[in-house]
Amino acid sequence: MSEKVKQLPYEDNGEPEGLNATLTSPIAADGRPEPGKRYIVPARQGRAVRLAQGQRLKIINTYGSQVCDFWAFNASSPREFLSMEHLRTWLSRLTPVVGDPLVTNHRRTILTFLEDTSPGVHDTLLTSCDIYRYQKLGVEGYHDNCADNLRMALKAIKLRTAEVPSPLNLWMNNPVQADGSIGWLTPVSKPDDYVVFGAEMDCIVVMSACPQDLVPVNGKDCQPADLHFEVI
Amino acid sequence: MSEKVKQLPYEDNGEPEGLNATLTSPIAADGRPEPGKRYIVPARQGRAVRLAQGQRLKIINTYGSQVCDFWAFNASSPREFLSMEHLRTWLSRLTPVVGDPLVTNHRRTILTFLEDTSPGVHDTLLTSCDIYRYQKLGVEGYHDNCADNLRMALKAIKLRTAEVPSPLNLWMNNPVQADGSIGWLTPVSKPDDYVVFGAEMDCIVVMSACPQDLVPVNGKDCQPADLHFEVI
C-alpha cells in the first residue's frame, strides 16, 4: 500500500470527517486481518477489513441488540459496491437470507450470505445515521454517526470515498406494514448471534457499530454496544 | 453557464456513456425551461431541467403506462440529491404521497409532492435499469437504459455526475407482499395522469422515460412511450 492516502476516483465530499477513534484505529495499516483473530468494533465506531476472495467474515452481535451498518466495495474498483437498491431488484425481496448473493451496483455478486444464527431480521430500506440526522434530533455539536464511521474507517486504511451507499443494516428491525409504513422496533437477535459472509471477489468491507442513542434502534436502553468479527 | 463541461466534484465513472439522442437534445443549453411550454421526454430517453425555487414541475404520463425514473440534485451543490433511503427514513413509509416533502441525503426538502391524479402507485425500492441489467437479460451490444439517460441528460446541459442515486420510479408498480417479496406488475395509471412537484430550492431534475422493453414494467406490450412535462 502507498503511504500516502490513495485517492479513489471520488473526491472527499467535504462533510464533517468525524471525531472518534475510528480514524486512528485500523485493524492493520492496510486493513488485512489476521485469520482467526477476534477483532472488536467498539461501540459507536467503525472498522474496515480487506477480504480476499474465498475468505469468510463472521460478524458477531456480542451483546445481542446492536445494529451493524455494513458496506462492501470491490477492492480493485471501489466505484463498484454492494448496493441495496440493486440487491432488492435482484432478489425481488426486501431482505436477503442465507444462500442469497449480495450484489453490487454492477449486478455482480460481491459476497454470499452463508450463515445467520439470528431470526434473520435485517434492514435494507433505511439510510445510515449521519450528522444531519442528529442535527434534526436536536444534537448540538458533533455526534458519532455511521456515515462518518464509514469514511473514517476507509481513511484509516488509506482509502477514501465520498459515496455513502445505502447500508445493509444487520439486525435492524424496521418491519414494513401492509399500508407501506415502516415500523421502528428493537432487534430480535440474542447475544452472540452471528452472520457469515463469503467473499466472492477481493473486497473491502466496513462495519459500523451504530451510535444511535436517541432512538431505540440498538435496544430499548439506547446504549450502543461493541460488535466483534473474525475472518476465517 | 460555462461553455466547457462543468466538472462536478465527481469524476465520470467510466461506464458506457449511452448512445441515444439524450446527449444532444437538451431542452436548452443550460436546461432552463420556458414556463408553460409543453416538453417531451421521448420514449427511451432522458431530459434534465433546471428549476428555480418556487417553480412547479408537472410530469405527465401521456400514454398512461410509462414509468418515469426521476432524480433531483441541489443546483449549487450536486453532492446533495434526492435520496430514496433518506426519504423512506424521513417518512417511515415506502412511498411518498401528496403533501410529503421529498428529502435529500442531507435531510433537507428539495421538492414537495403537490399533486397526483394517479392512484399513487410509485416505487422507491428498485434501482434504475442500467447496462448491466440488459446484459443479464441477454442483450448483446448497447441497450438504452435509465442510468445512462441520467448521465447523458446532465451532460447535455454541461453537468456531470458519476453518482446514480436510487431513483423515484414514478408509476412503477412493484408491491411488497407480507413475506417481503416484491412483485412486478404493470402501472395502474391512466393516460394523462400527472404528478406535480414544487421546487423548495434551486435544483436540477432529470426524468427518464424508462426504455425497459424486455420486462413488462411499462405496460403489458413492453412498448416504452413518451412522457411530457411543463414547468409552471
Automatic annotation (TrEMBL), chains A, B:
Residues 40-204 form the DUF1989 domain. InterPro entries: DUF1989. It comes from the Bacteria. Residues 1-35 are annotated as: Disordered. This is Urea carboxylase-associated family protein. It comes from Ktedonosporobacter rubrisoli.
